[in-house]
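Handout for the seminar on molecular recognition.
Each group receives one record of this type.
Step one: identify the two inputs.
Step two: read the structure output and locate the region that could contact adenosine monophosphate.
Step three: write two sentences on what you found, then compare them with the reference statements printed after the record.
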Amino acid sequence: MQKANHMHTSKRILVVGSGGREHALAWKLTKDGADVFVAPGNAGTARQATNLPINASDTNAILAAVTEHNIDLVVVGPEAPLVGGLVDALTAAGIRAFGPTAQAAQLEGSKIFCKDVLHTNDIPTATYRQFRSFEQARQFLEDREDEPVVIKADGLAAGKGVFVCGGRDDAIAAVEQLRCDPQFQTAASGILIEERLDGVEVSVIAITDGRTIVTLPPLQDHKAAHDGDQGPNTGGMGAFCPAPFVDDALLAEIEERILVPTIHGMRRRRTPFHGVLYAGLMLTAQGPKVLEYNVRFGDPECQALLVRLESSLVELLDAAVDCRLETLAPPRWNDGASVTVVMASEGYPGPVAKGQPIRGLEQVAALDDVAVFHAATTPASDSPDTVLASGGRVLAVTATGQSLARAKQRAYEGVKEIRWQGAWCRKDIADKGLRHQRELAASEASSAATGTPHPAEGTP
Ligand code: AMP
Ligand code: GLY
C-alpha cells in the first residue's frame, strides 16, 4: 500500500456522503486549497474531488480509506452515520473527525432525548407529553381539550415522522397511521404529542467545539413540495440566506437563550457536542422556540451558506476539531445574499424515474454567481461526460447576489438553462423573505411620512 506522499503540503480531507450538501462541502474545501476525497460522492463531486466507491455507512471501509489516502480530517455530512457512531470509530482509531459522537447525535436521533435536553436546561420549546404506546397516546388525545397538536415519532424517520395536526380527529388519525405503517415500527418506539406553535420558521446553524459556538447567518428552508408551502413534506426544496426575519438582536437572543445553554447542557450530561448544531426554530409571539435540532448541516441550507463564506472552511473545521474556536477570527461572509433552488425528478417526494440525461450543465457553468451542486447524479456508464439524474432531489442551483432579489433572479436564470425529462422545482423560493423586506421598507416609509418617532429617537 502506498503511504504518505510527503511532497504534499495541502490538507487531505475526506467528506462522507453523496448529496448536494457534500458537493458544496467538497467545492468549498477544494476552493480553500484542500485535497478532497468524497465517499461515495456523485457526478458533481467527481469533477471537483476524488470519489471513493465507499458507502457512508461502511465504517471499516472508511477507516481503511483514511489510512490509504493519508487523510488529515474526516467531515461527516449526513445524520445516519453520525447517529451510527462513525465519529466515535474514527476518534478511537486516532483519526480527526468533524461531527458529534453517537451519544451527542441523539439530539437529532431521538426527539425524546432532544426534548429532555431542552426541558432540563429551560430552553424554549413547545410543551409536550411523551408516550410509550399508541393506546396511551390515543387515550390522552381523547381526554384532553381539542387543540392543535403535532404528533412525532421518536427516532430518525427521514423527515416523515412528523404530523402537524389541526385538532383531535387529525391527531388520532396520525397516531393510527404510525401504528399501522411498518415504516414507523422502529422509529415509533416513542411518541411525542406537542403543542402546535405558530409563527415564522427559521434555521440557525452553529459550529461548535463543545465550548465555543460560531453562529452562521440565519436561513430559511422550504420543506413543502409545492409553491405557497403546499403539498407533502420533502427534504427541502430550497433555501435563502440571510433570513431577514432574524436581526442581530434576535440572533443574539437565540445564541444566549438557545444555543449556548444547549452546548452547556450537553457537556453537563457528559455528552459534549462537537460539530454542527442546527436549530430549527419557530419565531412565536413569545419569542424563538426550538422545533428540532439537527446535528449536521442542512441540505440544501449548506449550499446557500457556503457560497457566502469568504473565509476558510478548512480553518473553521480544523479549529472546531482541535477545540480552539475561541482563538479563531470570526468567519467572513459576503455582503449580499444567496438563494438555492432544488431541481427534483418527476414524482418526488414519492418514487421517481431515474436515468434521465441532464442537459444544460455547461451553459449554467458559464454563469457568474451561479453554482450547481449535484445531489442525486451519476455519470452515464457509456459516456462519462453525460450526467444522469439518479434520485429525487437532483441538483441544487445556488446563486449569490448583492440583494436577495438579485440572488433569486440569478438562481432561476441558472434553473432555466437546465433540462431533463420530468424536472421541476418550486418557483417561489425566497419569496417570503422578499415579502418581509417589502413590509419592513413600507413600515419604515410610513413612519417617516407620519412623523412617528423612530424607536431610537424615543419619546419625551
Ligand atoms: P421537525 O422534523 O421536528 O422539524 O418537524 C418538521 C416540521 O414540522 C417543522 O419544520 C415544522 O414545520 C413542523 N413542526 C414541528 N414541530 C412543530 C410544532 N411544535 N408546532 C408547529 N409546527 C411544527
Ligand atoms: N433541509 C432540511 C434538512 O436538511 O434537514
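Reference statements: The domain at 12-103 is CATH 3.40.50.20 (Rossmann fold). The first helix runs from residue 20 to 31.
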